[in-house]
Amino acid sequence: MEAQTCVLFEGGRSWGRTYYRNASGKPLHAVLTLMRPDGRTVQAHCDLPAGDEPGTCETPREAVVGGGPASYVAVAEVADARGERKLLRSGSNPAPGEDGSDQ
């Protein structure tokens, strides 16, 4: 199982996305959570079919709120199909310089 999670912004809207490849041989389940700077969260529940083909899971798109891109975080948690055993956690990171630092 491989996953990469990010926060996207376009046209005044924001959303979380996870790119995944489920080569485990078994269907899995993911919960993708977008945490916003106003304290609200937006979630998506996605079934990840077994296979070598890449796929995506996205939260609904919502209007951007104050705080800037660095104040948004997305986290995907992947578990077995019944949600009993967590297998992977993937989180977003701000791009260099987006957190207010000079580096």
Description of the structure:
With 103 residues, the chain is an all-beta fold. It has a single domain, classed as Immunoglobulin-like (Sandwich), CATH 2.60.40.10. The chain contains no helices and eight strands. Strands 1, 2, 5 and 6 form a four-stranded antiparallel beta sheet that branches. Strands 4-3-7-8 form a four-stranded antiparallel beta sheet, with no helix packed on it. A hairpin with a 5-residue loop joins β3 and β4 (41-48).
Task: State the gist of this model.
The chain is mostly beta strands.
Unreliable stretches (pLDDT < 50, length at least 5) are 98-103
CATH topology-level name: Immunoglobulin-like
Query: Proportion of β residues?
Result: over 45%
Q: Which assembly state applies to the chains in this document? A: single chain
Structural class: mainly beta
Quote the distance from N terminus to C terminus.
32 Å
CATH class: Mainly Beta
Query: Based on CA inertia axes, which overall geometry fits?
Result: elongated
CATH superfamily: Immunoglobulins
Q: What is the chain-wise order of helices and strands?
A: EEEEEEEE
User: How many β-strands, per DSSP?
Assistant: 8
CATH architecture descriptor name: Sandwich
Helical content (DSSP H or I, runs of 4+): under 10%
Number of helices: 0
The major beta sheet can be summarized as: 4 strands, antiparallel
Radius of gyration: 14 Å
